[in-house]
Automatic annotation (TrEMBL):
The chain crosses the membrane at residues 31-50, 62-84, 105-133, 153-175, 187-207, 244-263, 284-308, 328-351, 380-399, 405-425, 437-456, 462-480. Gene3D superfamilies: Amino acid/polyamine transporter I (1.20.1740.10). It comes from the Bacteria. It holds the Pfam family AA_permease_2. The keyword Chaperone does not apply. It comes from Streptomyces rubradiris (Streptomyces achromogenes subsp. rubradiris). The lineage of its organism: Bacteria, Bacillati, Actinomycetota, Actinomycetes, Kitasatosporales. It is a multi-pass membrane protein. It is found in: Membrane. Keywords: Membrane, Transmembrane, Transmembrane helix, Transport. This is Amino acid permease. PANTHER family: CATIONIC AMINO ACID TRANSPORTER 4, INNER MEMBRANE TRANSPORTER YGJI-RELATED.
Length: 503
């Protein structure tokens, strides 16, 4: 039993699978395309919303340090992702990496986790995008019926038609091809980054030094509770996170971490990159550095424009400009947020479809979904299936309470990838590595510890929901995936396939 649960798919097999005509993806992306994808997915609601929440409630003006800490945690994970993506340039990201090092069951667990993380993330972002569009339409005097705006009308029925329509439109773009997706993303990311730079440059003229005093407000401990919504670290160790003070900076880092989610999606496009050994590490690390610098600059400016205690939680950047008597910038920021969320949604959907595609190609999910389009060479079946499902979820479901599942899923993936780097270094030291994570095993171990620490700062309720999803995953694996895996020994392989003995 244990030998089948932890059978590994070696790197050579993974790369060989990418050359099968019916399951091969088109290689069309460059390092610049990957960097744009990374910036496109990282810069989203985090920079426009979480700055105010973290500054007002936990860190004060020192929220800029919280962004640095969260960026450092991501950087540790990024170094591990970069080594794997350059060594195993195959679609699937952490799922594929785990399959090559930890074995089939751990790979299934992380793949199932990524399915939840990316699907839920796409739906959450689509709903957020819809909210910005509703706000802009209301400002222009155009009002959608409540029943089609995701708002419960008199009948109690609500369907967010804008969120669903966005997901379906982006699904069509992804089916047409990666290069088209990259071009659309480049234009939208250019607009989004321009808006962020305008905020930084224009806001710098309204900064007042007095607003930075005190830079680290006096610590105010949170009363220990033990409620279900308390952070898990409080329930286990009896330690309650702080409002403000030095510990408040670390608490805020757990909050603003959501703003960095997405850079790992770059690794899912490794199979569609012309020179993945060189370009994927550049795309991952380049996008993370750019976004961290922008986040720190924005947080410094917004806490200098308005006293942290007066910052808005819903729209801190826009409201800070209103407070200084410049409401025109508020409209520009809302427009930039709406445009920016478009690329976040598309790239999350891209990553989701590639993970699903990789799991299907390995037989852990039905092989039907691993067929690529005869013309566009994209995984159109899995993309369409997921696009329709996510569109329905985004249209009907209020997802605000589930958004933290995206955080815990991402951090879990970070920890698994870091462990995989250590294991593969020991089991396959002969593999050519175009990029090598420095200071192994120190950097991967630090990545695991940092990820676990942020996970412990998430509510216990989030852990329970995550456990339920994982339990469902175990049931699916043992009922279907284990026996249909391409590594499962069988006398008569499916039509069109050759026998695949376990590695």
């Amino acid at each position: 039993m244990s030998s089948t649960l932890f059978r590994t798919k070696n790197v050579e097999q993974s790369i060989q699978d990418t050359e099968e005509p019916e399951h091969a993806l088109k290689k069309s992306l460059s390092a610049l395309d990957l960097t744009v994808f990374g910036v496109g997915v990282i810069i989203g609601t985090g920079i426009f919303v979480l700055t105010g929440t973290a500054a007002k409630n936990t860190a004060g003006p020192a929220v800029s340090l919280s962004f640095v800490i969260a960026g450092a945690v991501c950087a540790l994970a990024a170094l591990c992702y970069a080594e794997f993506a350059s060594t195993v340039p195959v679609a699937g990201s952490a799922y594929t990496f785990s399959y090559a090092s930890l074995g089939e069951l751990p790979a299934w667990i992380i793949g199932w986790d990524l399915v939840l993380e990316l699907a839920l993330g796409t739906a959450v972002v689509a709903v957020g995008w819809s909210g910005y569009i509703h706000s802009l339409l209301d400002n222009w005097g155009w009002h959608l019926p409540e029943a089609l705006g995701g708002r419960d009308g008199a009948t109690g029925f609500g369907f967010d038609i804008l969120a669903a329509a966005l997901v379906l439109l982006l699904t069509a773009i992804l089916v047409v091809g990666m290069k088209v997706s990259a071009r659309v993303t480049s234009v939208v990311v250019g607009i989004k980054v321009a808006v962020v730079l305008i905020v930084i440059i224009a806001g710098a003229f309204f900064v007042k030094g007095a607003n930075y005093d005190p830079f680290i407000p006096e610590e105010q401990p949170v009363a220990a509770g033990g409620s279900l919504k308390a952070p898990l670290v409080q329930l286990i160790f009896g330690w309650a996170p702080s409002h403000f003070g030095v510990m408040g900076i670390f608490t805020a880092a757990s909050v603003v971490f959501f703003a960095f989610i997405g850079f790992d999606v770059v690794a899912t496009a490794a199979e569609e990159t012309r020179n993945p050994q060189r370009d994927v590490p550049r795309g991952i690390l380049g996008s993370l550095v750019i976004c961290t610098a922008l986040y720190v600059a924005v947080s410094i400016v917004v806490t200098g424009m308005q006293k942290y205690s007066s910052l808005s939680v819903e729209a801190p950047l826009a409201d800070a400009f209103k407070a200084t008597g410049h409401p025109w910038f508020a409209g520009l920021i809302s427009f930039g947020a709406a445009v920016g969320l478009t690329t976040v949604c598309m790239i999350l959907l891209l990553g989701q479809s590639r993970v699903f595609f990789a799991m299907s190609r390995d037989g852990l999910l039905p092989r039907f979904f691993s067929q690529t389009h005869p013309k566009y060479r994209t995984p159109y079946r899995s993309t369409i299936l997921l696009g329709v499902v996510i569109a329905v979820v985004a249209g009907f479901t209020s997802l605000s309470e589930l958004a933290e599942l995206v955080n815990i899923g991402t951090l879990f993936a970070f920890a698994i990838v870091a462990l995989s780097v250590i294991i593969l270094r020991r089991t396959r030291p002969d593999l050519p590595r175009a990029f090598r994570t420095p200071l192994v095993p120190l950097v991967p171990v630090l990545s695991v510890l940092a990820s676990l620490w942020l996970m412990l700062n998430l509510p216990a309720e989030t852990w329970l929901r995550f456990a339920v999803w994982m339990l469902i995953g175990f049931v699916v694996y043992f009922l279907y995936g284990r026996s249909h895996s391409r590594l499962a020994p069988r006398g008569h392989p499916p039509a069109g396939e050759s026998p695949r003995p376990p590695a």
